[in-house]
């Protein structure tokens, strides 16, 4: 990945960094080179980030945005008969392995080998944990009781559809967040960073008295809502170290939320099933202000080394996906930082609102009572069954057919939508402050484009999965995967409009230089692209990347495992 280093845990000169992951030998390689001086404006850009019959388990409306579930619509979708590989959603059968997976706890480990493997990667991890422990001792005069680690991720395909209830296909990366923690005396929580440029912060231990950390109290509130007795507030000493670049689209925020969560779980001697942790960390992150789905937290918690994961929702479920051996996924940063939370009202949350409005309008046009549609429809997956039934009358099983027939391509005005629904938009989104902020800022709503992207992207995820397991040659598989990635990027750029000029230029550079496919990854509006490459080793051997640079700037890494508590 080409990225601009120098974030929260980086010092010194800025460099371009290339991460290559998913190589035939299961390694990840990083190339660094000094960054040429560029536009200051570019550096300061504020741009952002199996199938399941049931609709959603994690949506933007499960906390402050609570809405009744669309049971009748879900029943319609469950009743719709269709082939597993030709449609977006299909039931995940219950089984003994599934039950075992549901009960699988976040692991507690006594060594780094299960997380970082062997060789140079393990040696580097040992040095990093030793430095973190030393920093902890320097700040607090004691050693940490435990560490918690959670990785970032790259989404290979399935962008902006998790919060609509659809499956995604990410993989964890080596870059991660590590939290060192111990119980302390007194009534304070002290938080430091390995980087001295971040000052020590001190807060009262009682969560009810933490106004500055109000948005980060999700885990506490979750436990309280479940009737879990956490006892008296506990004083904590914490030091954080992170290598996931901020604003890259590689889920630095999810890595932070997940690692902080399991660190506190460990210090309180509590543990929960991975699936449950993935769900409540998603709910916790929404306190920051973005109406996110559950992909980032799910892969960070549930990842397995050496595999991408097909993440299904409702119930949350991870299926191992073995990628073709001949390809390498290269992750590149466009150097425009993706500030998802800061631009939520006009970018990320705006798309969530547009998708809900598209779903409500579709439901009404497909015959659902207005009030029922407003009260029960929250995602496009809620109306998929109705759309498929409509498409069937047109000789298709694609829900996008209904979108094409029933929604117009020109942007909708608020007045036009209110005429269809019979309700003011502020009434439709009553109780959701983040959605009301979107309504206040929006000038129009592109319902056709957003719905078309969601339904087409959901189908591409399963086409990607089916291609990997097909009987095509390895080269044939890689070409098809590259085509799907290119289609995904076009949809993200043109229909969902979550790209930016820097990403467009980067994707073009990747394709012009031999990538089979390239697309933005993460929320978009800045951050990273992911490209599928063949023959990367031969390029090194031919001197495209100097062999000397490999020795200086490359380290090996297997695809990452998920979160873990480490008592070293």
- Quote the distance from N terminus to C terminus: 31 Å
Number of helices: 21
Q: Helical amount among residues, as a percent range?
A: 25-40%
Highest CATH level, the class of the domain at 109-325: Alpha Beta
Strand content: 15-25%
CATH architecture identity of the domain at 109-325: 2-Layer Sandwich
Q: What's the β-strand tally?
A: 14
The mean pLDDT is: 79
CATH fold description of the domain at 109-325: Ribosomal Protein S5, domain 2
Backbone CA Rg: 23 Å
Please state the overall shape, judged from the principal axes of the Cα atoms.
Answer: globular
Please list the strands of the largest sheet in the order they lie side by side.
3-14-4-5-8-6-7
Features:
568 residues; alpha+beta; Alpha-Beta Plaits; Ribosomal Protein S5, domain 2; Galactokinase; nucleotide-binding
Layout of secondary structure:
Layout lengths: L14 E7 L7 E6 L5 H4 L27 H9 L16 H7 L5 E2 L3 H4 L3 H21 L5 E12 L11 E15 L4 E6 L7 E4 L13 H8 L10 E7 L9 H16 L6 H12 L9 H8 L5 E5 L4 E5 L5 E7 L14 H18 L4 H7 L7 H9 L7 H7 L7 H8 L3 H4 L4 H9 L5 H22 L5 H22 L5 H12 L4 E5 L6 E7 L1 H6 L5 H7 L10 E3 L2
GO biological process, one term: galactose metabolic process
GO molecular function: ATP binding; galactokinase activity
Family: Belongs to the GHMP kinase family. GalK subfamily.
């Amino acid at each position: 990945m080409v990225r601009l280093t120098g974030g929260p845990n980086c010092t010194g000169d800025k460099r371009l960094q290339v991460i290559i992951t998913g190589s035939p030998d299961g390694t990840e390689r990083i190339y660094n080179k000094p960054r040429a001086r560029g536009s200051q404006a570019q550096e300061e850009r504020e741009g952002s980030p199996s199938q399941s019959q049931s609709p959603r388990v994690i949506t933007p409306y499960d906390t402050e945005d609570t809405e009744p579930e669309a049971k009748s619509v879900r029943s319609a979708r469950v009743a719709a008969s269709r082939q597993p590989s030709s449609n977006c959603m299909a039931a995940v059968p219950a089984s003994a392995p599934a039950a075992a997976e549901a009960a699988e706890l976040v692991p507690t480990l006594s060594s780094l080998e299960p997380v970082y493997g062997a060789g140079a990667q393990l040696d580097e991890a040992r040095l990093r944990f030793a430095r973190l422990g030393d920093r902890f001792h320097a700040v607090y005069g004691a050693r940490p009781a435990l560490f918690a680690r959670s990785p970032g991720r790259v989404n290979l395909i399935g962008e902006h559809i998790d919060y609509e209830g659809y499956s995604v296909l990410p993989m964890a990366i080596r870059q991660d967040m590590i939290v060192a923690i111990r119980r302390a005396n007194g009534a304070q929580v002290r938080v430091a960073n390995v980087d001295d440029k971040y000052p020590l912060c001190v807060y009262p231990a009682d969560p009810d008295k933490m106004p500055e950390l109000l948005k980060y109290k999700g885990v506490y509130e979750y436990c309280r809502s479940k009737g879990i007795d956490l006892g008296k507030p506990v004083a904590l000493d914490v030091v954080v170290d992170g290598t996931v670049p901020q604003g890259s689209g590689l889920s630095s925020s999810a890595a932070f939320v997940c690692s902080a969560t399991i660190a506190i779980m460990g210090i309180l001697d509590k543990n929960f099933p991975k699936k449950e942790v993935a769900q409540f960390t998603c709910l916790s992150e929404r306190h920051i202000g973005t109406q996110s789905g559950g992909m980032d937290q799910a892969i960070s918690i549930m990842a397995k080394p050496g595999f991408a994961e097909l993440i299904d929702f409702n119930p949350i479920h991870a299926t191992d996906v073995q990628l073709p051996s001949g390809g390498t996924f290269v992750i590149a940063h466009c150097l425009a930082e993706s500030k998802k939370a800061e631009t939520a009202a006009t970018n990320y949350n705006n798309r969530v609102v547009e998708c809900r409005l598209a779903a409500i309008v579709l439901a009404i046009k497909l015959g659902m009572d207005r009030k029922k549609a407003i009260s029960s429809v929250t995602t496009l997956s809620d109306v998929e069954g109705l759309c498929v039934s409509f498409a069937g009358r047109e000789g298709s099983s694609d829900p996008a057919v209904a979108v094409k027939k029933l929604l117009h391509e020109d942007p909708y005005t608020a007045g036009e939508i209110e005429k269809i629904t019979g309700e003011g938009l502020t009434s439709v989104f009553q109780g959701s402050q983040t959605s009301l902020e979107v309504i206040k800022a929006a000038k129009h709503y592109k319902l056709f484009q957003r719905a078309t992207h969601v339904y087409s992207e959901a189908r591409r995820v399963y086409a990607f999965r089916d291609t990997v397991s097909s009987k095509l040659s390895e080269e044939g598989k890689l070409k098809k995967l590259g085509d799907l990635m290119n289609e995904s990027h076009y949809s993200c750029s043109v229909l969902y409009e979550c790209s930016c000029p820097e990403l467009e230029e980067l994707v073009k550079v990747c394709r012009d230089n031999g990538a089979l496919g390239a697309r933005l990854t993460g929320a978009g509006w800045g951050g990273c692209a992911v490209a599928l490459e063949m023959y990367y080793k031969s390029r090194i051997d031919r001197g495209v990347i100097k062999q000397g640079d490999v020795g200086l700037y490359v380290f090996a890494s297997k695809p990452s495992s998920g979160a873990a508590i480490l008592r070293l």
